[in-house]
Amino acid sequence: MRDILTTCVYCGCGCGIYLHEEKGRVTGSSPSRNHPVSRGNLCVKGWHLHEFVHHPDRLTQPLIRKKGRLVPVGWEEALEYTARELGRIRDETGSKGIGVLSSAKCTNEENYLLQKFTRAVLKTNNIDHCARL
Amino acid sequence: MAGLATTFGSGAMTNSINEIEESQVILVSGSNTTEAHPQVARRILDAVDRGAKLIVIDPRRTRLSECAHIHLDLKPGTDIPLLNVMMRIILDESLVDDLFIEMRTENYNELRDMLYRLDLEETAALTGVPLKKISEAAQMYARAQKAVICYCLGITQHICGTKNVQSIANLAMMTGNVEKEDTGVDPLRGQNNVQGACDMGALPNVYPSYQAVNNQDFQEKFARAWGTELSPEPGLSLLDMTHSGKNGPLKAMFIMGENPALSDPVLETVNETLANLEFLAVADIFLTDTARLANVVLPAASFAEKTGTFTNSERRVQMVRQVIPPLAGCRTDSDIIMELARRLDYPMNYESPAEVMEEIAMLAPIYGGMYHERLENCWGLQWPCWDRDHPGTPFLHKYYFTRGHGRFVPSSHQPPSEPVDEQYPFLLMTGRIYHQYHTGTMTRRSPTLNREADKALLQINRHDAEGLKIKNGEMVEMTSRRGTIRLSAEVGSEVPAGTVYTTFHYPDVPVNLLCIGARDPLANCPEYKICAVKIEAAKSKK
Ligand code: SF4
């Protein structure tokens, strides 16, 4: 079993939490004692941080809508299709026709990459996230 | 957080969470802190145990308001008149910090003139709180050596959210309660990495580190760094994108880890907008309501499956560490973005998130000293952190405000855009609860959290319930001008008569369906908190 220190995903307090790993699965959460915010304490959400990771509802296959229904496809097909459509709409209707939403649940690095992708590749500043909620 | 940015030049928490403990007076406004920010609440209660005074501004009775020395239980939507009355009293009692105002701020005269024109009795009457009680609170706050103000959704989600925030900033500046340790104005961020998403420029008008896209210097800087031309035109905001309806300007959207189909107010318009796109791609860990509308759904990795950083409310940038590899069939969002970029002839070849952070450090001055190898070996660093040797910044605006001088922006009362009337006699307020998080895509799939709070409840005052012949636990129908939802009643005394309260975490009870599309012109903040509704006992039992 390994304990790995990470940061809680639930609220802006940003508690330091150890996730317990056993045989490739995340099995538990416990507070960091010396972390300046958590100081050995977590709220109920933090104590159960690991619970959604292996939930049976997790998506594990890309889906594409075919004849009105979402059907499983391979990654190659899904990425190819996404890139082609975004590229086509950018070139045909112009960049103003594309909007991107980033996420307060994603990391800084991912947010950075997505806004760079939006600005440098899709050529638009139409990017926002749900900060106001 | 437009409000605080226009006043101070920065929209982040000015203090660290732990400083709250050392404060002498804590004023909490529009924040149900025990439920939304448990660790902040803990500091507040610890401070109270040590003798600090607590003032809570909230229409509802909350766990925190019960520990308060003064609970200003104002009528919903009357924050500005309440704050103005407080400031006028501070002025009348000569508790103003003249030196601070002189040295560090501008436009004070305009505020003072506005306050002198105020009819105290009349303005206080708007709020429903006795003048004497407001006066006590004002003096308690102004006389403190160290005082902090914490505020949250309650304040920013009114139609006049930006003005509310500016009024709070006015109060803090006129008493000089800003620039010191254990003293300041602290917006509490709702989601874990809202701060980081803003810092990284996931906003339509700024690049990372709040560098405006329509400023030519910044635009050239980023164009050079990224080796491509960039648009100088600010983009569309979230609501402009999702509320444009059938004939909106967008043909395609790419949505990463958000669920606007549920989290946006006025759901129908959002669904209409999304359903009418030519192309919608969604990357998420679950099949959310938004993903159900998509043309392509890409299964993303959860936080336990990737490395990177989050930035908390106190601007602390800290590591998120990979515990297990992405589940079979999933990919990290970075991976997805890089794959798409490569296919669109713009290769992004980052070896690791650490390398992405190096680019961030180079381009975003407030993150200038943030490197993974540094962050690995400490409890994170608080921005601004200008270079590799900079120790980070526990509290902001120490010797000067980010924008130079703090600016007073006086505001007057703006009545809610949908007052109650005969047909819709109740004010509906919305908020969050302790066991659930945002739209619940994650918490609802956590068995323990879901067991503790498994259905949406409508808090209603005992007297109102009696009048409507509604018993505790009974199903009710709640209708606004925009729709009807069903949920069970929780009869009690948490909310005042004439007001009801519920939360927005439950997909089967889409409260947002009832909300108003009216928005704050400056912060684009949907008016979530208040709208007029009617309540009836549900006709048939489900
Ligand atoms: S453990 Fe609770 S208080 Fe701490 S960050 Fe997570 S949700 Fe917030």
Describe this structure in words.
- The complex is a heterodimer of chains A (133) and B (542).
- Chain A is α+β, with helices and mostly antiparallel strands and 133 residues long.
- Chain A folds into 3 domains: 2-52, Single Sheet (N-terminal domain of TfIIb); 59-93, no CATH class; 98-127.
- Chain A is 28% helix and 26% strand.
- Chain A contains 3 helices and 7 strands, in the order βββαββαβαβ.
- Chain A has a 3-stranded antiparallel beta sheet with strand order 1-2-3, with no helix packed on it. In chain A, strands 4-5 form a two-stranded antiparallel sheet. A two-stranded parallel sheet of chain A has the order 6-7.
- In chain A, strand 2 (16-22) and strand 3 (25-31) form a beta hairpin.
- In chain B, helix 5 (79-92) runs antiparallel to helix 8 (120-127) and helix 5 (79-92) crosses helix 9.
- Chain B is an alpha/beta fold and 542 residues long.
- The two termini of chain B are 42 Å apart.
- In chain B, strands 16-20-17-19-18-21 form a 6-stranded mixed β-barrel. In chain B, strands 3-2-1-5-6 form a 5-stranded parallel beta sheet.
- Chain B is globular.
- The model of chain B is unreliable at 154-160, 433-438 and 521-526 (pLDDT under 50).
- Chain B contains 22 helices and 21 strands.
- The interface between A and B is large, with 95 and 139 residues.
- Bound molecules: iron/sulfur cluster.
- Residues 8, 10-11, 13-15, 42-43, 45-46 of chain A line the site of iron/sulfur cluster.
